[in-house]
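Example protein
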Amino acid sequence: MSLSRIHLIAAARPNFMKVAPLYHALKAQPWCEVSIVHTGQHYDANMSDAFFRDLQLPQPRHHLEVGSGSHAEQTGGVMIAYEKVCLAERPDWIVVVGDVNSTAACAMVGAKLWIPVVHLEAGLRSRDRSMPEEINRLVTDAIADVLWTPSIDGDENLIQEGVDPARIDRVGNIMIDSYEMMRPQIERDDTPQRMGLERGRYIVVTLHRPSNVDRRETLTPLVEQLVAAAARVPVVFAVHPRTRKRLEEFGLMDSLNSITENTAMVIAETVQAEKGVSIPSREWMQALRSRCTEKGALLVLDEIQAGFGRTGTLWAFEQFGIVPDILLLGKSLGGGMPLFATLDSAIILERTQVLVTPAATHLTFRVVP
């Protein structure tokens, strides 16, 4: 009796981790011949080769080498390349994983060639069709013959969409299988110790979805939150190539790291109002305060724009739960007249000799509460 030929489609980093336990389980079976097809959607060595090595996966039987491109280019490129593989070496089953472009592309190839398709991690929904991944999920689940779901909500989503329950098989979250498969290596790994981290006392984070990283107004508050979290607990940020590009493009990569032991002071506004009102987040201001304290830099806050009581508290900095070393005031002191003053912390007054000289200023406030 001939063996059933199974193609496992691996395209991107999450796919590698999900196909690994399935590959090893099928490899041990006497009834099938299992092969990995790498579409090349993730082609960076750190995004591909390292995972194959760590997960003890063999070299792919077929490497489509599609690479990067638009969604249409990737999807079309995978379909063209994989159809040639299927025509030359027709599999009995195609197993696609997750929700990347290659998932939908290979599922469509199988459906059009009448090759049974299994979707591993079926039924997941975000309800957001602006996400390319959501479109890939919907397309793949509509045409796959067998739907392996990870959870009850996956079953419910498919049934609500009119899918025949006979096509649905809940197999559980295969990422747990991946974790258990890798547990010995994880527990032996000394990376946390080499990084000076204490077990259970640090955060690991990665960001890569376009909806999170491609827009400055979305990525900036995420970075602010990470910086704020890092002020309380170490954060290990595994930076995706796409995210690194955006961080550099938006000027966020260095962020607060530019404040060093050589920094004398940092001057910031609690409210910016030259081109519309702009207010930093509470988390960002607290992280700024912590960084200045850590590096021995003075934090100078300029409240010339904020005035007295305009933010609901006498001083705007009170809204952020911090105290600056020096507070700059002006205009509102004299109802718009060019009067200026500074408030310094006691330690600053003790350690410095303040020299007051005439200063030029300009009118900002016309009415003061």
User: Anything to note?
Assistant: The longest helix spans residues 71-88. The chain has three domains: 4-181, 190-257, 259-369. The first strand starts at residue 4 and ends at 10.
